[in-house]
Specification:
Layout lengths: L5 E6 L11 H4 L4 H14 L3 E6 L3 H14 L2 E5 L8 H10 L3 E5 L21 E4 L4 H11 L4
Helix pairs in contact: 2-5, 3-4
Bound molecules: ligand CA2.
């Protein structure tokens, strides 16, 4: 059977607040804008996109596990879990799908605690500090790796 032409877009804790606060760091686009621009980028390279945001680590992990059934790759902005979660890393490596790690802001120009990522050595693609357009870049770069 051929691989599914679908990507999962995962946004982690607090990213539902996009466009409502801290525009100086995260811009003025909303989560709905991010999901739309990502779906458009996916469609342009022949992929369907399913989007999920949750503030709950276990919900994110369950969605990553479920992606094994019908997705070819994952684009994820794990939010603050980037810097704390071995469990999220284990979920992503456990399902074995290629994934792209996205950060809207330039985490390396911010506080020291944002410089460490539990995902950076296992991500197939990393896009950092390109604003919300980075999601479209991540979709394209990830799709290019999927046969
Ligand atoms: O730059 C990114 O995309 C981050 O992943 C965003 C996380 C942060 O903990 C990471 O260090 C970098 C935080 C997401 C919170 O998003 C908000 C958006 C608007 C207003 C408040 C929070």
């Amino acid at each position: 059977m051929s691989a599914p032409r679908r990507l999962l877009l995962v946004n982690g804790p607090n990213l539902n607040l996009l466009g409502t606060r801290e525009p100086g760091i995260y811009g003025s686009a909303t989560l709905a804008d991010v999901e739309r621009l990502s779906a458009e980028a996916a469609a342009a390279v022949g992929f369907d996109l399913r989007a999920l945001q949750s503030n709950h680590e276990g919900v994110l992990i369950d969605a990553i596990h479920a992606a094994r059934e019908d997705c070819a790759g994952i684009v994820i902005n794990p939010g603050g879990l980037t810097h704390t979660s071995v469990s999220l890393r284990d979920a992503l490596t456990g399902v074995g799908l290629p994934f792209a790690e996205v950060h809207i802001s330039d985490v390396y120009a911010r506080e020291e605690f944002r410089h460490h990522s539990y995902l950076d050595d296992v991500a197939a693609v990393r896009v950092v500090g390109r604003g919300v357009d980075g999601y479209a870049d991540a979709v394209r770069e990830l799709a290019a790796l999927i046969p």
